[in-house]
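hiii so um. not sure if this is the right channel but i have a protein structure encoded as tokens and i wanna go backwards to a sequence. like what aa goes where. can anyone help
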């Protein structure tokens, strides 16, 4: 409860007779400070989409070119179970930069050799988090059912979150030493991951920004594997649009773009593997 300081002015008049020659009244002022509680106002939050702007006519796509042979790269995050002998018995993909990586990652980790974790001098079974950089190429792609929509003013955009996989029962129930009790984290001796070339179809959703001169100058991915951002960026750079208008003049604006992307993806190969030591994976928390 807020409190306000209120100054009260009190005037007191006293008829004083100083002497027999003066009978005039004298007055003086005294200031008093009192704390008076004031009610706290209630402020209601509004669902406002910062990407929605007032326009008369939305932008329309005039021209685009599908890029070919675009190099792509991304980082997969995976948890591997490593026994006390240093053998990986399998893994759980947690974040995938490309479609179709689950099976190649699990197969590549199963049987891989590690330096086992340790607590003092004793080796320990443990879970270890790995970041695996992968590179490949989008050889060609096509787009189905493209759509441009005005963002909903009352619905802020929400990116699609990848659902985290639970470990299979064979791994979930295996004993392991928590990271806080380890003096050394497991580390791969040599680990190489590859995935074969594949054709795939995936949904694409992004907020795209159009300038008043009809070009796309930035975007916000909402539903897209992170490794495919270089391809989408190259594709949007080729767009030419009739810009949105307000009061007859071209203006900058955002649009919600959605489509189905059909792509031919080359084989993927790992270029670097890093152990993540500042985070812990626990199968009983999934």
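sure thing!! here u go:
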């Amino acid at each position: 409860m807020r409190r306000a300081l209120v100054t009260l002015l009190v005037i007191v008049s006293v008829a004083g007779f100083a002497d027999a020659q003066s009978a005039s009244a004298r007055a003086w002022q005294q200031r008093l400070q009192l704390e008076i509680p004031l009610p706290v106002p209630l402020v209601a939050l509004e669902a406002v989409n910062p990407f929605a702007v007032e326009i008369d006519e939305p932008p329309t796509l005039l021209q685009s070119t599908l890029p070919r042979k675009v190099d792509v790269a991304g980082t997969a995050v995976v948890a591997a179970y490593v026994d006390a002998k240093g053998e990986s018995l399998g893994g759980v993909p947690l974040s995938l930069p490309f479609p179709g990586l689950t099976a190649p990652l699990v197969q590549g980790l199963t049987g891989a050799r590690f330096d086992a974790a340790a607590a003092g001098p004793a080796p320990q079974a443990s879970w270890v988090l790995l970041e695996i950089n992968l590179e490949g190429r989008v050889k060609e792609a096509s787009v189905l059912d493209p759509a441009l929509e005005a963002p909903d003013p009352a619905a802020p955009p929400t990116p699609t979150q990848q659902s985290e996989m639970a470990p299979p029962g064979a791994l979930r129930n295996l004993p392991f030493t928590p990271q806080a009790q380890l003096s050394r984290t497991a580390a791969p001796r040599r680990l190489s991951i590859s995935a074969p070339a594949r054709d795939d179809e995936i949904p694409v959703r992004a907020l795209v920004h159009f300038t008043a001169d009809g070009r796309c100058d930035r975007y916000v991915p909402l539903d897209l594997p992170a490794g495919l951002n270089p391809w989408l960026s190259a594709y949007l750079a080729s767009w030419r649009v009739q810009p949105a208008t307000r009061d007859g003049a071209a203006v900058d604006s955002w649009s919600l773009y959605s489509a189905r992307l059909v792509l031919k993806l080359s084989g993927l190969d790992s270029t670097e593997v890093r152990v993540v030591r500042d985070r812990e994976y626990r199968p009983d928390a999934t």
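oh and The first strand starts at residue 2 and ends at 14.
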